[in-house]
Amino acid sequence: MTARPAPVLRCWTTACCAVLATVACSGDPGADTAGVEVVASGYPLEYVAERVGQGHVTVEGLVPPGGDSHQVELTPRQVGRLGEVDVVVHLSGLQPSTDAALEQHGPARVVDAADVVDLGVAPGRPAGAARAEAPDPHFWLDPTRLAAVARAVSDEFAAVDPEHAGDYAAAAAALGTELAELDSAYQEGLAGCRGRTLVTSHEAFGYLAERYGLVQVGIAGLDPAVEPSPARLRDVVEVVEGRDVRTVFFEVSTGPGLARALAEDLGLRTGVLDPVERAPAAGEDYSSTMRANLRALQQGLDCLPAGG
Predict the structure, then answer these.
(1) Residues 288, 297, 234, CA angle at the centre, nearest 5°?
(2) Alpha-carbon distance 278 to 43, whole Å?
(3) Which among 123, 145, 132, 157 has a CA at the least distance from the CA of 51?
(4) Which domain holds residue 197?
(5) What is the tens place of the pLDDT at every residue in 32-67?
(6) Are 201 and 257 in contact, with CB atoms under 8 Å apart?
(7) In this structure, which long-range contacts are made by residues 302-305, counting pairs with CB atoms below 8 Å and at least 24 apart in sequence?
(8) Which among 134, 153, 185 is the end of a domain?
(9) Which CA distances in Å does 199 have to 221, 236, 276?
(10) Contact 283, 253 (CB under 8 A)
(11) How many domains does the chain have?
């Protein structure tokens, strides 16, 4: 059977051309109505890309809903997309599979947060504590560091889409203002805390602790999948007893586990913090989650109200 040639699509009316502009009527077969195409390797970076993009970009996240940013294994489609999109917003060192894929298939433009912010090596630890070899990736828990990434994302979007450069710059500035306000809320809200030692289920809150004058003591290290040794547990108990700690915090994504067991053994309270690694529940975002963390810290560290 002889295949018939495909019919030629014609725009018989102006209305038809408006509806079918993405097909053949534009006269530009390469026209792209999706705007700037972006892939972000984790939720905080996805949040920044969407806020700065202001509707001019489409953002895909690499971490599936409920997934762990530390344990991402890319699908073949995701690997291919890295080479197709206009910009990748990424944090090198957190996801080895993404790092490897970008080396082979990456686009011309990559915003690597590790090149924008100063990644400290396990910041917020008590004096004399052993230092981890790997940098702490959770920089976004310091809002001022996330603002720096927003500015870098704006510059990259503008390079790809100069027509909307002003929109990107304005959006990054607006986000920067919101993050500055969030930073001020933390500075004021944690200024009058009776406790300054932040005992957490794992060391995800070093940048937050460093920014706001707290000392982080993690039951586990930077990798929550690594069980703490008996020696580590003894060290944590010693710190808790020596610093008059009242609350042990566990993470919303991992559950209480050892944190609750330790709290029960020592007669302490438990609190819940969110490292903001995963997309929050519907209706919530980075900012609202960080403010919920602030309220949890104020309660767990026995803080006076601002101005009290």
Answers:
(1) 135
(2) 6
(3) 157
(4) 192-300
(5) 446 899 999 999 999 999 999 999 999 999 988 777
(6) yes
(7) 302/193, 302/194, 302/195, 302/246, 303/189, 303/190, 303/191, 303/192, 303/193, 303/194, 304/192, 304/193, 305/192
(8) 185
(9) 12, 8, 17
(10) no
(11) 2
* Structure tokens, 242: 């020596």
* Tens digit of each residue's pLDDT (9 = 90 or more) over 206-249: 999 999 999 999 887 776 667 788 888 888 898 888 887 999 99
End-of-domain residue from the set 125, 160, 185: 185
**Per-residue model confidence (pLDDT) at position 101:** 93
Indicate the burial class of 104 (C-beta count within 10 angstroms; 0-12, 13-18, 19 or more).
Answer: exposed
Amino acid at 200: T
Same domain for 49 and 72, yes or no, is: yes
Q: Model confidence over 248-282: pLDDT tens digits?
A: 998 876 666 778 888 888 889 999 999 999 888 88
The CA distance from 40 to 26, in Å, is: 30
In a domain, 78, yes or no: yes
- Domain assignment present for 154: yes
Tokens of 250: 């566990």
Tell me how far apart the alpha carbons of residues 159 and 162 are, in angstroms, rounded to a whole number: 6
| 121: confidence class by pLDDT, cuts 50, 70, 90 | low
Sign, CA dihedral 301-242-265-207, equals positive
